[in-house]
Amino acid sequence: MKQLVNNLKGDKGIWSFVALLALFSFMPVFSASSNLAYIGQGNGNTLGYLVKHIAHIGIGFLIIYWVHKVPYHYFKAISKGALYVVWLLLAYTLSKGTVIAGANASRWIQVPFIGITFQTSTLASIVLYIFVARYMSKTREVPISFKSSIWELWVPVFITLIFILPANFSTTALIFSMVLVLVFIGKYPLRYIGIVVGSGIVFLAFFILIAKAFPDAFPNRVDTLISRIDNFTSDKPGEDDYQIEKAKIAIASGKIYGLGPGKSIQKNFLPQSSSDFIFAIIVEEYGLIGGLGVLTLYLLLLFRFVIASHKANSLFGKLVVVGLGFPMIFQAMVNMAVAVELLPVTGQTLPLISSGGSSIWMTCFALGIIISVTKKEEEIAQELKDAAKREEALQKLIDRELEEEEVVAENYSIEDKAKNPMHAVLNK
């Protein structure tokens, strides 16, 4: 184990906080899966769900380990080609999305021969962030032309978002917001950002109008999006109100110290209690202290991302850390905000804590790239340190040679004086 830890490169703070979140997730998932166990198996045995979650986390950490060994600039080279592959996957997902538990889940596809479901928008977001970081780092030294950036940057971005929007509005909004943050950090002109934001709002309004006028043209989750916004802004009862009500009851029941691990009551009534609403179960069982503890871990992880971005030796590295790291924290905040009804129900999971396979693996894939950036910083620092040591050793060697030459010169001078008779006469 000690040897394995020594082989881990990159920011040790990120490794530590990720490991703490993953370890903490075992108990809430084990407890909150009872609802799924009763529905799926009828016996309430959640051990199988815990083993499955542990396997997902274990594979996730293997992904982090493998990816962090890859130099991060390799991803810069393949991001443009990977974007075309992502578009094909998103188009396939939109047309052939699978059904989970009898419900339309057009965000997911079934992976052949493996039997697991995969949310393609998570992969699309990672590829898109790297693509945007690549573009902004490429144009760092050249004045940005809005006309050229439309075709080289914004057309690919909007094509990706168009594929995601009908099935998942919350993910589309999160990705678009993060792209704006990236281009802002990359010093994209503010007036151009304003034009892009205005265009995005106009397009979204047009999309919603079309969806309401022709509901059969968008059979996926557009109706769900519209109903969730309507329910959030009005007092009409709905399915989301039931979820929020149970989540708030769970949070209120937890009080300061919580009911204790495994003693949640609302987990038996709250849908998606092990994924979308797991934060409510955490607060119910571990209280306000537990909820603030989880929030603190995410904020500490954000702090390490900020430090890693600041230390990155290239603009591309800085933007990659921001583009892949910040969305994890924003997603966690959105998940917590939904549980306390600050935001409408979005379906965003709690990264590294909620149960799930592909979502955990994609999060770990992004973390592997971030740690690869921090590993490069360490390698450069180590090279500078080694160079300084070599220079110091060389200087010591030179000083020693000079000292030896001085001693030899002195000895030669003394012997020469002793042998010279005139020197003896003068001394008398």
TrEMBL record:
What are the protein's GO molecular function terms? lipid-linked peptidoglycan transporter activity; peptidoglycan glycosyltransferase activity
TM ranges are 14-38, 50-68, 74-92, 113-133, 153-185, 192-214, 277-303, 315-340, 352-373
InterPro entries from the xrefs?
FtsW/RodA
Stated EC number for the protein is: 2.4.99.28
UniProt cross-references to Pfam families, sorted A to Z:
FTSW_RODA_SPOVE
Coiled-coil region: 374-404
Lyase found in the keyword field: no
Q: What is the membrane topology noted in the UniProt record heading this document?
A: Multi-pass membrane protein
Q: What is its main location?
A: membrane
Q: Does the keyword tRNA-binding apply?
A: no
The biological processes this protein is annotated with in GO are: cell division; peptidoglycan biosynthetic process; regulation of cell shape
This protein's UniProt keywords = Cell cycle, Cell division, Cell shape, Coiled coil, Glycosyltransferase, Membrane, Peptidoglycan synthesis, Transferase, Transmembrane, Transmembrane helix
Entry GO terms, CC: cell division site; plasma membrane
Organism domain of life: Bacteria
User: What reaction does this catalyse?
Assistant: [GlcNAc-(1->4)-Mur2Ac(oyl-L-Ala-gamma-D-Glu-L-Lys-D-Ala-D-Ala)](n)-di-trans,octa-cis-undecaprenyl diphosphate + beta-D-GlcNAc-(1->4)-Mur2Ac(oyl-L-Ala-gamma-D-Glu-L-Lys-D-Ala-D-Ala)-di-trans,octa-cis-undecaprenyl diphosphate = [GlcNAc-(1->4)-Mur2Ac(oyl-L-Ala-gamma-D-Glu-L-Lys-D-Ala-D-Ala)](n+1)-di-trans,octa-cis-undecaprenyl diphosphate + di-trans,octa-cis-undecaprenyl diphosphate + H(+)
Question: Where does it localize?
Answer: Membrane
Q: Which family does it belong to?
A: Belongs to the SEDS family. FtsW subfamily.
Put simply, this protein is called Probable peptidoglycan glycosyltransferase FtsW
